[in-house]
Write a structure and sequence with these properties.
Helix 1 (2-15) runs antiparallel to helix 2 (209-221). The protein is built from two helices and 17 strands. The protein has a domain at 17-124 and 174-206. The model is unreliable at 1-16 and 203-222 (pLDDT under 50). With 222 residues, the protein is mainly β. An eight-stranded antiparallel beta sheet has the order 6-5-4-3-9-8-17-14, with no helix packed on it. A four-stranded antiparallel beta sheet has the order 10-11-12-13, with no helix packed on it. A three-stranded antiparallel beta sheet has the order 2-1-7, with no helix packed on it. It has helices spanning 2-15, 209-221, and strands at residues 21-23, 32-33, 37-42, 45-53, 59-65, 74-79, 86-88, 96-104, 117-123, 129-130, 139-145, 153-159, 168-174, 176-178, 181-185, 188-192, 195-204. It is globular, with a radius of gyration of 19 Å.
Amino acid sequence: MKNVLLVALLSAMAIAKDCKYFIHPSYGAYPLGINRCSYFVEGDTRTSFLISCINSTHAKVTIYDKSYQCTDTHTEMIFGPNDAATFDCSPTKMECGKLYGSKTPCTCTAQNGDCENAYVVSLVDEQCVTTTGIDVYDSLMYEITCGSISKAQASIYYYKSTDCSGSYEANVEKAGCAAAHNAKEGNNTYPVQERDIIICPGNMATLSLSLLVALIAAVFAL
């Protein structure tokens, strides 16, 4: 019986990675999680948006002007099979994602309105994104590692293929404050602003923390 429950627990956690997602060039090269608020802040400009599934073939983007919390005044756009969006609204998949973003300077907060710029999106990692026509690479994939500030990181893999196969170049971003520094590209040197890199936590709407604790307790109580 213990083995059966353990298998069920591990299966539930594996299924949690199988997320619904939405991709559109207008919202960056991000596989966005469904029903997760994402925001962009640049000076006094604040914009947030939320993707939702209408059914398996149509998704809705709700855009909130002057808000970073997906509240108040908004407009809506519907995307279907003939639009430029790529999405998976399968009813068998979960609503999940991991936070990824940054803010400048490190000590600012979107709530206080003192950020020069900031963004946070909810990513479905390990999902291939085709970027042909909008990047020098043809596809990319994010791999988000959650954990403490010292362990959390985002690995971004860039491919020349359109399906995230073959050779790649990788960039790794560690969570926490990255101090301002000078970067060199070829013969040119340019300043890089300090920024606080935001990664995680993961979230699983249909597998609550209380359910997870109950499953673990049930396994080890037997």
